[in-house]
Amino acid sequence: MNFKTYAEATGKNALNLAKTADKINQETGVSVGIAPQFVDIASIAQNVSIPVFAQHIDPVTHGSFTGHILPESVKEAGAVGTLINHSERRLKLADIDAAITRAQQVGLVTVICSNNSAVSAAIAALKPNMVAVEPPELIGSGISVSKAKPEVVSGTVDLVKRVNPEVVVLCGAGITTGEDVAAALKLGTEGVLVASGIVKAKDQYKALLDFAEAITKV
Amino acid sequence: MNFKTYAEATGKNALNLAKTADKINQETGVSVGIAPQFVDIASIAQNVSIPVFAQHIDPVTHGSFTGHILPESVKEAGAVGTLINHSERRLKLADIDAAITRAQQVGLVTVICSNNSAVSAAIAALKPNMVAVEPPELIGSGISVSKAKPEVVSGTVDLVKRVNPEVVVLCGAGITTGEDVAAALKLGTEGVLVASGIVKAKDQYKALLDFAEAITKV
Amino acid sequence: MNFKTYAEATGKNALNLAKTADKINQETGVSVGIAPQFVDIASIAQNVSIPVFAQHIDPVTHGSFTGHILPESVKEAGAVGTLINHSERRLKLADIDAAITRAQQVGLVTVICSNNSAVSAAIAALKPNMVAVEPPELIGSGISVSKAKPEVVSGTVDLVKRVNPEVVVLCGAGITTGEDVAAALKLGTEGVLVASGIVKAKDQYKALLDFAEAITKV
Amino acid sequence: MNFKTYAEATGKNALNLAKTADKINQETGVSVGIAPQFVDIASIAQNVSIPVFAQHIDPVTHGSFTGHILPESVKEAGAVGTLINHSERRLKLADIDAAITRAQQVGLVTVICSNNSAVSAAIAALKPNMVAVEPPELIGSGISVSKAKPEVVSGTVDLVKRVNPEVVVLCGAGITTGEDVAAALKLGTEGVLVASGIVKAKDQYKALLDFAEAITKV
User: Fold this and answer.
1) With a cut of 0.90, is the ipTM above it?
2) Contact flag B126-C122 (C-beta cutoff 8 Å)
3) Which of C186, C180, C127 is nearest to C157 (CA)?
4) C17 to chain D nearest CA, in Å?
5) Interval A78-97: pLDDT, tens
6) Which of C202, C116, C212 is CA-nearest to residue C156?
7) What residues of chain B lie within 8 A of the CB of C85, using their CB?
8) Is the confidence at residue C38, as pLDDT, over 90?
């Protein structure tokens, strides 16, 4: 679950949402990874047992990189992985490659976002842990990629596995209901990326529970 | 004091360095502002009484800005201000303007970095709280801008004050000793930006004390 | 007149539009500067006597800068000036400063675009020949800045002249008729930036003539 | 042959160098593709029969893209192909994908540059015509990639062909002599990218002849 910079998922609200996801994990056994803003990583990681991800890292090392996201810093703050190349924070190709290498050096799981099947296949060649395909035009739309563009999802699974069968495929964009999640899993993905669908839900607990139940049913 | 992504100023080391600066403040009355990495802001702000700055903010609002630095988030984490446009994290002109506006909206003090006198004057027109001129070629060099390029420092003070007399002028780059600080203050600046000169000193406490004493003597 | 990448102003169409503007110049005495795409600069400059501008230059020198726009190259191709920092091609602040310096070194007139009054004032401190203020939300809208936001135009003239009285102020965005031009000149600007208003007009000659007559009447 | 922004390959010098390469073609039958600066494409394409490439294109269409390189414009100016993602002009991954698509739409041959084997394989998944691997640290060094890092070259050929056997592999960086070219071809590449090795040679004709003879000997 990507917290983005939503008001409902910043600071104290971020901690509360993380605790809700943690509770869902205890009740259903479904482990929801969460990606809060950088400044919220440490306090959240200290208070929940579900995996915490950074929303981005820079391919930098210790040194003179003011204002950049050092992989070591998010790791020490308690994150276990990181998103890279989200459609709202796209990177140059050489930097994606370098960021994956740096993440592996410090022991962060890598989830690389892509905008279509071909780009997903390209990313797979860089040996990340996971690729998450998200058609930009559906992000935040409430129209689920798994229902509106099933061919993008299944095509991505197909192309990615051909380049590198070890890469786990996720999908995202417009995922709002447990049904959307179930559709995504049927298309061959092993999980979903979700943001507004839960963060902006009237009842975040209920929305998360709906997702968790969809996953346990598969 | 800019912590950059130095190993000596990341995570636990960052907290220790912040506490040392806090101690110097209690002993000498000189308040050293510190700019740690984003993930370290919250834990440091909870443990020291000196002002904490972010190293950068993005001109974004609550919403869909994955991987960006939301001004509200660094404020809620306890920062009182932010660097913007550091030579290692330069921004587009329109984004500097927008970031200053956003910082003012959430109540963050703005310290905008520049690379020369003309750029400093341009920044002054955007009405930040402070401008910090740092010739890039001297950053991390150990050769002090206040001694090697005094005309850049005094020229910046002159041009900035002509555009906007309310803007405080700082300088940085190569500042290593209390003597460098004193030279900077004599040239009309009201403070200095320092990084490796203290962070990478064998004895950070001693290096900070040297700086603080130079300031109290003025 | 900015040709952007419009079909009506690319290749042969670019040359034809340039010749139309040249004819207007001969008939009315009004000299319309034109900014075609890079590849069209040379052939146009050889065929018209009105001033040709580049749409952008990079702050680079002779050397290893593959894919960049070398100021010397556009000069040698026949351009007399260049746009810099158009809202569709914004630059980092330090690069605007460096690009202005490079343009002056090779003898290119600089027209720096800005998005509001404060940014215009900042640019004036960098000593370009001209500043062109264009509120991004009005670009291509057909709603003229000189009528919809006269305070932005007059405020820019005021702030720019205070920082540097030698800088010429232009305005743009939504300028479609001779009336819009006249309004802009009354607000203290010395010219306008126009694109779709002429390029996409059914009769480019007639649209240009309307503009030229508005200028001669002032 | 990449002309970069070298003084020896700008404007008139660019045309002269292009004619020299054209002469070599007539004398040896070896066709050297050349990539001059944008403003020089048209005059060169009119005067030589060897293939002319752009150094870069942007993934834009006809419309409001001031200062960008429209694929249609370089095509109409006479280019038959384009470099994309040169180490001096790196693009975001999604933009490389979009630029390849745009190039194919207008009929431009695509040569995508990469910095290592893994990135080359990623690019191959995007179905360009050619991939050119160039370790950045060797570019302009005079130390040939084909001799100093043969494993990067052969590793790239291997990985690229596994992802997409139709993609032609080139290599570059430090290529200075015919011997370097021969070594590159033996490693499985089908051509080389060269810049300073010829552009900055005392006798460009002789340097080119040396290269051409190395190719004819294979």
Assistant:
1) yes
2) yes
3) C186
4) 15
5) 999 999 999 999 999 999 99
6) C116
7) 93
8) yes
Q: Closest by alpha carbon to D75, among C47, C88, C40?
A: C40
Q: How far apart are CA B193 and CA B172, in angstroms?
A: 5
In this complex, is the C-beta atom of D126 within 8 Å of any C-beta atom belonging to chain A? yes
10 Å Cβ neighbour count for D153?
30
Distance between CA atoms of B77 and B20, rounded to whole angstroms? 20
Instruction: Catalogue the active-site residues of D.
Output: 86, 134
Distance of CA B51 to the CA centre of its chain: 11
Domain D7-217 falls in which CATH fold? TIM Barrel (3.20.20)
The amino acid at C21: A
Chain B contact set for A88 (CB, 8 A): 64-68
- Which helix (H) or strand (E) segment is C84 a member of? strand C81-84
State the Cα–Cα distance between residues D21 and D34, nearest whole angstrom.
Answer: 8
pLDDT average, residue stretch B161-182: 92
CA distance A165 to A159: 9
Instruction: Render pLDDT for D135-154 as a digit per residue (tens, 0 to 9).
Output: 988 888 888 988 899 999 99
- The burial class, CB within 10 Å (0-12 / 13-18 / 19+), for D81 is buried
- C160 touches B at CB < 8 Å: no
Size of interface A-B (CB pairs under 8 A): 143
Instruction: Tell me the average pLDDT across B135-149.
Output: 87
Best of D93, D116, D139 to disrupt the A interface (most A CBs within 10 Å) is D93
Would an 8 Å CB–CB cutoff place B98 in contact with chain C? no
Cβ-based contacts under 8 A for chains A and D: 71
Q: Is 90 exceeded by the pLDDT of residue B120?
A: yes
Listed by start position, the domains of chain C span: 7-217
How far D162 CA lies from chain A's nearest CA (Å)? 8
Look at B91 and C92 and tell me if their CB atoms are within 8 Å: yes
**Which pLDDT value is given to residue C168?**
97
E runs forming strands in chain B: 53-54, 81-84, 109-114, 130-133, 168-172, 192-193
H-state helical runs in chain C: 12-28, 41-47, 71-76, 93-106, 117-124, 145-148, 150-163, 178-186, 196-199, 204-217
φ, ψ at D74 (rounded to 5°): -75, -35
In this structure, the strands spanning B192-193 and D109-114 are unpaired
**Residue C151 annotated in active site:** no
Cα B50 from Cα B27, distance rounded (Å):
13
Q: Length of chain C in residues, anyone? A: 218
pLDDT value, residue B139: 84
CB D133 within 8 A of CB D171: yes
Is any Cβ of chain A less than 8 angstroms from the Cβ of B106?
no
Contact C34, C15 (CB under 8 A): no
3-class SS of residue D95:
helix
Within an 8 Å CB–CB cutoff, is residue A92 touching chain D?
yes
Closest by alpha carbon to D141, among D94, D180, D85?
D180
> How many alpha carbons lie under 13 Å from residue B82 in its C-beta half-sphere?
31
Average pLDDT over residues C20-42: 95
C35 beta partners: C2
